[in-house]
Amino acid sequence: xxxxxxxxxxxxxxxxxxxxxxxxxxxxxxxxxxxxxxxxxxxxxxxxxxxxxxxxxxxxxxxxxxxxxxxxxxxxxxxxxxxxxxxxxxxxxxxxxxxxxxxxxxxxxxxxxxxxxxxxxxxxxxxxxxxxxxxxxxxxxxxxxxxxxxxxxxxxxxxxxxxxxxxxxxxxxxxxxxxxxxxxxxxxxxxxxxxxxxxxxxxxxxxxxxxxxxxxxxx
Length: 219
Prior knowledge:
This protein folds into 2 domains: 4-16 and 96-218, HAD superfamily/HAD-like (Rossmann fold); 21-94. It is 46% helix and 12% strand. The chain contains 10 helices and 6 strands. It has a 6-stranded parallel sheet, sandwiched between helices. The N and C termini lie close together (7 Å). The model has no long low-confidence stretch (mean pLDDT 96). It holds the Pfam family Hydrolase.
């Protein structure tokens, strides 16, 4: 029987479409480059610096963003410093809105122990949860856990907070590599939310959080 539900945050509860567009737009305004060019470089550098960060000695996300932004400052001769750009970006992250179907959490928060687990720094993760009034009992960030999904450590720390056996917990996330494989490695059943309908053969999967209650009844 399911007693606890762990949700990923960005891409699952909160929309992260064009996550880096605000800071890239600011950089474009302060340089001669096009925003699309900067955004393309930003995404590529993100893949470079964050790749396998869960296997390295822990550093908060800000550490990797500083490295990334420093490269962009040098390439585009930007007038700002890496801390100012990172602060601007974190503020933009905190303003992202929850998906409309996230309202289902209001209906399940009194029936299940609801937790949020996110690869994020505290400052913007806590703000986006608060601004969107997302119902939950527990929130654990990678910064607080000093570990990143898909590492088992971050899952184990949250389970300890929830005080529920993993066999009674399910995890809902939008990434197979980070969320589903991480949950599986920790011995937690995962449910993929596939909003883009990219993984039609994956099971169990949902396309909207509104499908979750009925699926839980069948588990």
